[in-house]
Amino acid sequence: MTMAHLTIDELKSQAKRLRTAMSAAGTPLTHSGALELVAKSHGVRDWNTMAALAARTDNQPELPAVVGGTVSGEYLGQRFTGKVLSLTRLSQSTFYKITLHFDQPVDVVTFESFSAFRQRVTATIDGKGVSPRQTSNGRPHLVLDT
């Protein structure tokens, strides 16, 4: 397991095991000393830096899509496949702004008398790829397949 995938709790457990092993070998070690040694063993300057890196990694949500990737789903009730042109996390939230380019234009009007085709759309989605905005019948505007 690389340092980038370790949680704060896992790193503290490493420090506790190190402290126990060092004490058993006759070399007492303080808890803070063990934390510093764990940080150095992972190539990090000190424990505070290590804790900041681990916390930042722990709090990163999984992305609902990848820029340049191919996605499929429903937009205003119509099936689509397309490419992700951009994905931006909205500041300090769990939502993203996504821009898609559909392989084939999607008719977003349900009336038989006329059509309105869209091939490029921008929407807000959550971490699961679902738009919080809904149509009048309660369906999300955009739903990405997982």
Largest sheet: 5 strands, antiparallel
Number of β-strand runs = 5
Rounded to the nearest angstrom, the distance between the terminal CA atoms is 26 Å
Helix content: 25-40%
Low-confidence stretches: none
Strand pairing plus helix content: what structural class? Answer: alpha+beta
What order do the SSEs take from the amino end to the carboxyl end, as H and E? HHHEEEEE
Computed over alpha carbons, the radius of gyration is 24 Å
**Total number of domains:** 2
DSSP helical segment count: 3
Shape: rod-shaped
Beta-strand proportion: 25-35%
Arithmetic mean pLDDT: 87
Strand order of the largest sheet: 4-3-2-1-5
Protein name: Glyoxalase superfamily protein
InterPro entries: Glyoxalase_8
Domain Glyoxalase-related protein: 1-145
Pfam families: Glyoxalase_8
Task: Give your account of this protein's structure.
The chain has 146 residues and is of the alpha+beta class. It folds into 2 domains: 3-58; 70-144, no CATH class. 27% of the residues lie in helices and 29% in strands. The protein has 3 helices and 5 strands, in the order H-H-H-E-E-E-E-E. The chain has helices at residues 8-24, 31-41, 47-58; strands at 70-75, 78-89, 96-107, 117-125, 142-144. Strands 4-3-2-1-5 form a 5-stranded antiparallel beta sheet, with no helix packed on it. It is rod-shaped, with a radius of gyration of 24 Å. The two termini are 26 Å apart.
